[in-house]
Amino acid sequence: MRKMQAFLIATALAVGTAVPMSAVTVDRAVAAATAEDLNKDAGHALDMLYRTNAAAAAIGKQAKAVLVFPNIVKAGLVFGGAYGEGVLMRGGRPADYFNSFSGSWGLQAGVQSYGYVLFLMNDKAVDYLNKTQGWEIGVGPTVVVVNEGVAKNLSTTTLKDDSYAFIFDQKGLMAGVSIEGTKISHIKR
Questions:
Q1: Which of 31, 63, 128, 173 could form a disulfide with 119 if both were Cys (CB 3.0 to 4.6 A apart)?
Q2: Are the C-beta atoms of 104 and 79 separated by less than 8 Å?
Q3: Between 35-52 and 54-62, two packed helices, what is the crossing angle to 10 degrees?
Q4: Highest mean pLDDT: which of 4-18, 81-95, 149-163?
Q5: d(CA 106, CA 19)
Q6: What is the rounded CA–CA span in Å between residue 67 and residue 119?
Q7: How far apart are CA 119 and CA 122, in angstroms?
Q8: pTM value?
Q9: Do residues 116 and 164 touch, judged by C-beta distance below 8 A?
Q10: Is 70 exceeded by the pLDDT of residue 32?
């Protein structure tokens, strides 16, 4: 049900309206998942990532906090949007809840879903997330998106950036995923 709601919101954003993307309050437009659902989905997503990616598992052991977005739905037809909700984990337990939203325009058509995890490696990144009104990826603490090439050169001794992002479980008809410009905002549960 939540996936269908997220799909409908993303599709509505993709069609485009006269309302600027920054003025759209997606989290009010749909009944959000319960905290229990988010915790369960985030736990499953993180377990899957750790089982399939040794670099993510190693980084996860050193992270101060882990922000898990188990399902982001993106749709686009010239105008596009992506939305999902996630859990901030500290010490392996849910600590807070956030949403992830991005809008775009340009040559695009299709629908896809994916998940992503941000490993917050230091207090600077965790504090920034907690103290700001929203974190736009690309502004604030550094975020390194880890792909296969980057993962081969990572080790627990070479970790020096504020946060590392892993995108996983990509499905759908659109090519590529970018989290640059994504806005992460606190939500209440």
A1: 63
A2: yes
A3: 120
A4: 81-95
A5: 17
A6: 6
A7: 9
A8: 0.73
A9: no
A10: no
Cα(3)–Cα(114) distance, integer angstroms: 11
Map tokens 């980084």 to a residue: 59
The CA distance from 28 to 49, in Å, is 30
Is pLDDT at 27 greater than 50 in this prediction?
Answer: no
Strand ranges in the chain using DSSP code E only, listed in sequence order: 65-90, 93-120, 135-136, 143-145, 163-172, 183-187
pLDDT at 156: 54
Cβ atoms of 117 and 69 closer than 8 Å: yes
Short-list 165, 115, 160, 163, CA closest to 140: 163
Token pair 């590392």 in the structure block, residue: 164
Q: What is the 3-state secondary structure (H, E, C) of 106-133?
A: EEEEEEEEEEEEEEECCHHHHHHHHHCC
Task: Tell me how far apart the alpha carbons of residues 63 and 89 are, in angstroms, rounded to a whole number.
Answer: 10
125-136 pLDDT, tens digit per residue, is 999 888 887 777
The DSSP symbol for 173 reads S
The DSSP annotation for 11-33 comes to: HHHHH--SS-GGG--HHHHSPPP
CA atoms of 37 and 15, how far apart (whole Å): 29
The pLDDT confidence band at residue 189, using thresholds 50, 70 and 90, is confident
Q: What is the largest CA-CA distance in the chain?
A: 49
